[in-house]
Amino acid sequence: MRIFTAHAGPHRDLDTVLLVQERMSFIAMLVPLPWLLWHRCWIAAAVYVAAALAIGLLAPVTVAAWLVLAAHILIGLSAQDIRRQRLAATGAPTIAVVAGRNREDALFRLLSERPDLIPAGPR
Q1: DSSP-derived secondary structure for 56-78
Q2: Would you state the pLDDT for residue 14?
Q3: Could you give the CA distance from residue 22 to residue 83 in angstroms, rounded to a whole number?
Q4: Which pTM was predicted?
Q5: If 0-12 CB within 10 Å is exposed, 13-18 middle and 19+ buried, where does residue 98 land?
Q6: Closest CA to 94 of 28, 37, 44, 22
Q7: Relative to the CA of 49, which of 21, 43, 98, 123 has its CA 20 to 30 Å away?
Q8: Gap between the Cα atoms of 108 and 100, Å rounded
């Protein structure tokens, strides 16, 4: 089973529900800056650039390599949490935590627990 957090947009209906999986992001670990920019995590991207510049300017080469490696691993481990914080800050708070075999199963389970998220349809 995979664990997802459900985030609702301003309308709080099915069209704006976003599921974010709880997992390590290998892409964020390998290329953190493009990943952060793709997911619109502007503040985290700015912190990453500032930290990379500080490490590059202040640390010896061997120490800098280890610090950059550690930073990349840390970003990979916390990438989905950074994404959740950005969603909460932009008006999409966590409305539920749901488990499922895949995204569709998790969405089905979410809707069975929260039928208020199902759009009413045309009247």
Answers
A1: HHHS-HHHHHHHHHHHHHHHHHH
A2: 53
A3: 11
A4: 0.81
A5: buried
A6: 22
A7: 21
A8: 9
